[in-house]
Design a protein that fits this description.
By secondary structure, this protein is an alpha+beta fold. The chain has six helices and 17 strands. The protein has two domains: 2-114 and 247-259, Diaminopimelate Epimerase, Chain A, domain 1, CATH 3.10.310.10; 120-239, Diaminopimelate Epimerase, Chain A, domain 1. The chain has helices at residues 32-42, 72-85, 127-133, 154-159, 164-167, 207-218, and strands at 2-10, 19-26, 47-53, 56-62, 67-68, 92-97, 100-107, 110-116, 120-123, 139-143, 147-150, 175-180, 186-192, 197-200, 222-227, 233-239, 243-259. The chain has an eight-stranded mixed barrel.
Length: 260
């Protein structure tokens, strides 16, 4: 059996930046075990698989270790493959996922994703969190899925050197660290050691939590965010109440064939 595979740098204007994702179009679903093996072999933060079902696409995401319920950059990468390589011409791509129906549209090479907004509740800053991050956050929140530590300045976030053996013991899937930005509305970094990803380069799903928080704190609904990982990526965001818009560009790095 042969499968087409694409590697796409999402939230990037050129290769070697943004967040790389593998995208594999399917005619029918493979077994969960086989898809997990492929994701492990790819060894990228996410491998996306999709199957077309009439007017929409069923979409699933796998890290090297597990299937996840929501992934932003691999959704953007999947839409890029559909538009660029599958002769798709509709205004928007509709994905059916474990997080419900997601929409991605394209305008002049820029992809805009419509995702759910996730609120947060403030929790006490504990020594476990401070020890794991190496710095005590000013504020700490728990969201629907992720923990979010807020710092007062961008440089603190950029300089973080977490102890991943301790981060993996914290609650939540992602450990999001964020602060007001100097050149952007806010900056962030996201650590996901629980799923085999020490630091995710650009995390679309984390902005389901980040955008509502910063929109309320800054009093504005249109936001430009920067994820300050080594590769880095810019995200154009909008707060829509119970939804968020997350937009960016994507470039194809590789097209190939998997032989099984």
């Amino acid at each position: 059996m042969e499968l087409e595979i694409y590697q796409v740098d999402a939230f990037a204007e050129e290769v070697f930046s943004g967040n790389p994702a593998a995208v594999i179009p399917l005619y029918e679903w493979l077994s969960d075990e086989l898809m997990q093996h492929i994701a492990e072999e790819n060894n990228l933060s996410e491998t996306a698989f999709f199957v077309r079902k009439g007017e929409y696409f069923e979409l699933r995401w796998f890290t090297p270790e597990t299937e996840v319920d929501l992934c932003g950059h691999a959704t953007l990468a999947s839409a890029h493959v559909i538009y660029e390589f599958l002769d798709y011409t509709d205004q928007a791509v509709v994905f059916e996922t474990k997080s419900g129906r997601l929409f991605v549209d394209r305008d002049n090479g820029r992809y805009s994703m419509d995702f759910p907004a996730w609120g947060v509740r403030e929790i006490q800053v504990t020594e476990r969190v401070s020890d794991a991050l190496g710095v005590r956050p000013d504020l700490l929140f728990m969201g629907k899925r992720d923990m979010m530590a807020v710092f007062e300045d961008e440089q603190t976030v950029r300089d973080l050197k977490p102890d991943f053996a301790k981060v993996v013991q914290l609650d939540g899937v992602c450990m999001i660290c964020t602060a007001p930005g100097l050149d952007y509305d806010f900056v962030s970094r996201t650590f996901v050691p629980e799923e085999g990803i020490l630091e995710d380069p650009v995390t679309g799903s984390a902005h389901c939590t980040l955008v509502p928080y910063w929109a309320a704190r800054l009093g504005k609904d249109s936001l430009i965010a920067y994820q300050a990982s080594r590769r880095g990526g810019v995200l154009e965001c909008a707060n829509l109440g119970d939804r968020v818009k997350i937009a960016g560009q994507a470039v194809t790095y590789m097209k190939g064939t998997i032989t099984l």
